[in-house]
Specification:
By secondary structure, this protein is an alpha+beta fold. It folds into two domains: 7-98, OB fold (Dihydrolipoamide Acetyltransferase, E2P) (Beta Barrel); 119-429, 2-Layer Sandwich (BirA Bifunctional Protein, domain 2), CATH 3.30.930. 31% of the residues lie in helices and 27% in strands. It has helices at residues 56-64, 112-117, 119-122, 126-148, 187-197, 233-254, 256-261, 266-270, 281-288, 291-300, 313-320, 375-384, 393-397, 413-421, and strands at 17-30, 33-39, 44-50, 70-79, 87-98, 152-153, 159-160, 172-175, 178-182, 199-207, 220-229, 277-280, 327-330, 343-344, 347-351, 353-358, 363-370, 406-412. An eight-stranded mixed β-sheet has the order 6-10-11-18-17-16-13-12, sandwiched between helices. A five-stranded mixed beta barrel has the order 1-2-3-5-4. The protein has a three-stranded antiparallel β-sheet with strand order 7-9-8, with no helix packed on it. The longest helix has 23 residues, at 126-148. The chain binds 4-amino-1,4-dioxobutan-2-aminium adenosine-5'-monophosphate and magnesium ion. Residues 164-165, 185, 187, 208, 210, 217-218, 221, 223, 225, 364-368, 408-410, 412, 414-415, 426 line the site of 4-amino-1,4-dioxobutan-2-aminium adenosine-5'-monophosphate (4AD).
Length: 441
């Protein structure tokens, strides 16, 4: 096929004749002029056909082609400030590569279930397209951030013999007659790797059999997880701040067009600078125990916060709704957190851990901690949590040979993307969402 020009690059072709390949996004007409809007994945191009200037069969085609027909259009590029992208094409020729008819997603409003059932087509619409471009930038941003800070990429396996984040959300599979689980987090495999490479990270899908239907939970989501040897809670708080500030800045800079399509209020993202707010679990708990907060929870049908318990979605919203920057909540009660978290030496009932909550009510985007590096303490925790000792033998062994304090965190990609894109539900922040009642398409 003859080389085509990407719509994104048309500014460099003003006054020249080009060929563009894409799909018919929309068409309209005004008297003797017909407009085709063609999209090619890099942008939208308005093509203008005058009845006097194009052969009659082409003019007819411009009035009858179905939405999403695949086309080759050629003509001259000219400046047009009112057109999307600032340029339009004076149409000379149209070749139909595939004529589409009755495309199911039309400019009228569709419900979310209909759109999700048609996710394979919905990807072409402007909002999902913009949000997935934000995701693309967030993912590449994570890789660049860690690469430039000397972290080594160590991918963790997807099939695992044991739980990392509690046994209630494990997906079990049959592994040649043995039980295996889909990974909930790569962390357990990164801890050994940081003793080999110093600073490591993994980036991949993780799985949790979340049986609740909330807008913040997927059963398959992507997580980026750094792990650093010779470090503790304070170092990873810094790292988390730096990563988030970097990603927000990068998306503001490179996705401004996408954020416009998403109608995202960027002023609130511009306020995301260091230092983030910090509070301990006990300080957060005091806010949540306010009678006015309890009344609001009751009005909204949210479970009331119980002192000593974990935060729910409503609680996270309350803690962040009035804040301009993320808040890092530290020192949760050890007994509601994962088995591997290092106790606070000053108060062993509290763990050296953090949840980073995004502002504007988006909730937890990062969970992390310093890890227990003492062999016997870790073994006793594994026993208290009634975890299968045999499956954790290798993990314990790390604590026998040159064990050092180490810490890390996991950042949920869809949580960050939905926050940056200003989209309430996580299902839009991943190309093909997997949820309690969704395995299709
Ligand atoms: O807080 P979590 O459970 O922490 C861990 O998995 C640690 N092992 C990570 C580590 O220290 N290396 O999960 C980390 C993040 C959450 O803050 C949230 O952003 C995201 O993963 N997350 C989910 N995202 C979408 N759907 C779900 N069901 C999620 N569960 C957690
Ligand atoms: Mg968490």
């Amino acid at each position: 096929m003859k080389g085509a020009t990407a719509i994104r690059d048309l500014a460099g072709f003003e006054g020249k004749e080009v060929l563009v390949r894409g799909w018919l996004y929309a068409r309209r007409e005004a008297g003797k002029i017909r407009f085709l809007v063609v999209r090619d994945g890099t942008g939208y191009l308005q093509c203008v056909a005058f009845s006097k200037e194009v052969p009659p069969e082409i003019f007819t085609a411009c009035g009858t082609l179905g939405q999403e027909s695949a086309l080759e259009v050629s003509g001259t590029v000219r400046k047009e400030p009112r057109a999307p992208g600032g340029y339009e094409m004076g149409l000379k020729d149209v070749t139909v590569i595939h004529a589409a008819q009755d495309y199911p997603i039309t400019p009228k409003e569709h419900g979310p279930e209909f759109l999700l059932d048609h996710r394979h087509l919905w990807l072409r619409s402007s909002r999902p397209h913009a949000l997935l471009r934000v995701r693309h930038e967030v993912c590449q941003g994570c890789r660049d951030f860690f690469y430039h800070r000397g972290f080594v990429l160590i991918d963790s396996p997807m099939f695992t013999p044991a739980a990392c984040e509690g046994t209630s959300t494990l997906f079990e599979t049959d592994y040649f007659g043995e039980k295996a689980y889909l990974t909930q987090s790569g962390q357990l495999y990164l801890e050994p790797a940081c003793m080999a490479f110093g600073k490591v990270y993994c980036f991949g899908p993780t799985f949790r059999a979340e049986k609740s239907k909330t807008r913040r939970h997927l059963t398959e989501f992507w997580m980026v997880e750094p792990e650093v040897a010779f470090s503790g809670l304070s170092e990873i708080l810094e790292l988390a701040e730096d990563l988030i500030v970097y990603l927000v800045g990068r998306v503001l800079e490179r996705n401004s067009e996408d954020l416009k399509v998403l109608e995202r209020d960027t002023a609130s993202l511009e306020k995301v600078v260091k230092p983030f707010h910090r509070m301990t679990y006990d300080e957060a708990a005091r806010i949540l125990q306010d009678p006015a907060v309890h009344r609001r929870a009751a009005e909204q049908g949210a479970p009331p916060f119980v002192p000593g318990g974990d935060f729910g979605g409503f609680d996270e919203t309350v803690l962040t709704e009035s804040l301009d920057r993320p808040v890092m909540v530290t020192h949760f009660p050890a007994d509601i957190k994962a088995f591997y978290m290092q106790p606070d030496p000053g108060n062993p009932a509290r763990a050296l851990c953090v949840d980073v909550l995004a502002p504007e009510g988006y909730g937890e985007i990062i969970g992390g901690s310093q890890r227990i590096h003492d062999h016997d303490l870790l073994l006793s925790r594994i026993r208290e949590h009634k975890l299968p000792e045999e499956a954790f033998k290798w993990y314990l062994e790390i604590r026998k040979y040159g064990s050092v304090p180490h810490a890390g965190f996991g950042m949920g990609i869809e949580r960050v993307v939905s926050w940056l894109g200003g989209v309430r539900h996580l299902r839009e922040a991943i190309p093909y969402p997997r949820m309690l009642h969704r395995l299709y398409p």
